[in-house]
Write a structure and sequence with these properties.
alpha+beta, six-stranded antiparallel β-sheet, five-stranded mixed β-sheet, 20% helix, 28% strand, globular
């Protein structure tokens, strides 16, 4: 307890000292931008993409939006920080930039910043002012050149493609996420049980946008894994799960949480096609959660 005037805090970071350490994490990924303004939303959408794919417990994800003070607060306790934002330099839309370390030293003043002109460098300036010596020093900034920032519009296809590429690069570099060959088709399972298929996968193997999904046991006896099988149908006459378009690029999504036993199997997985059986197989990573009714078909 401070009893003398000379003991009172003199810097913002000292005012934050409440006697409790901030929650620690090895890697903090912050996505900055306005979710309502087209490609300006690329940072927050990247964070949501990583969340849907699943990250280690040592990784924290923050949708920084346009609230600079929140971004600065979020950096407390992080060993490494990855900051993602949109850029508008006039370059080719979808261009990916990695800001060099020396550019992170000469930051703009934090005064006069508001939600309409907030940028990644303002976030770091606010963190400098607020956290002082407690601000993480291991900071990496990625910027994606915008194609359009029309209010209410989704990401443009070229920016969305770069965003997905960057999500993979961040996972590979900062927490050793497994990578797949570039020509390997993949699907994504979200934490809330949605299966996402990109346009090419859906058009190639599920042209009628209807399928049957089932979970079966696969792999060697000592390394059993759950295998998600997707069987295409020729139409909805006999039922099936309908693939819905989820963005202007034509990517598809379908809710299969019941097939998964309501377990969280979030992640990105390789898809293999079995010509003889006429179905697609996705081997899910082994884990504690198992479907209670292996082999059940959902229609």
């Amino acid at each position: 307890m401070r009893t003398r005037e000379s003991d009172s805090p003199s810097a913002p970071y000292q005012l934050l000292d409440d006697g409790f350490s901030p929650p620690a994490c090895e890697v903090l990924v912050i996505g900055c931008g306005n979710i309502l303004r087209g490609d300006d939303a690329v940072g927050p959408i990247l964070v949501r993409t990583l969340y849907s794919q699943g990250v280690p417990d040592s990784v924290r994800l923050i949708d920084g939006g346009t609230a600079g003070m929140d971004v600065a607060f979020a950096m407390r306790g992080a060993a490494r920080v990855v900051l993602v934002d949109a850029a508008a330099t006039g370059a080719e839309p979808g261009t990916l930039y990695r800001v060099p370390a020396d550019a992170l030293v000469d930051l703009p003043p934090a005064e006069g910043v508001h939600s309409h002109n907030f940028r990644w460098d303002h976030a770091l300036s606010l963190a400098d002012w607020l956290l002082g010596p407690q601000r993480p020093t291991d900071v990496t900034v990625f910027l994606i050149e915008v194609g359009g920032c029309t209010p209410g519009e989704p990401l443009t296809p070229v920016v969305e493609a770069t965003m997905h590429r960057l999500a993979g690069l961040i996972g590979e570099e900062f927490w050793n996420a497994p990578t797949m060959p570039a020509d390997t088709p993949t699907v994504t399972l979200t934490a809330d049980g949605y299966l996402h298929l990109d346009h090419d996968v859906a058009r190639r193997w599920f042209p009628a946008d209807v399928l049957v999904a089932r979970l079966v046991a696969g792999g060697p006896p000592d390394e059993r894994s759950d295998v998600l099988e997707l069987i295409p149908l020729h139409g909805i006459t006999h039922g099936g799960l309908v693939l819905r378009q989820r963005n202007p690029s034509g990517d598809r999504t379908v809710l299969i949480h019941e097939v998964l036993g309501f377990a969280d199997r979030a992640g990105t997985y390789a898809l293999s096609w079995d010509d003889a059986a006429g179905l697609a197989r996705i081997v899910l990573d082994p884990g504690a959660d198992r479907h209670p009714r292996i082999g059940e078909v959902a229609r």
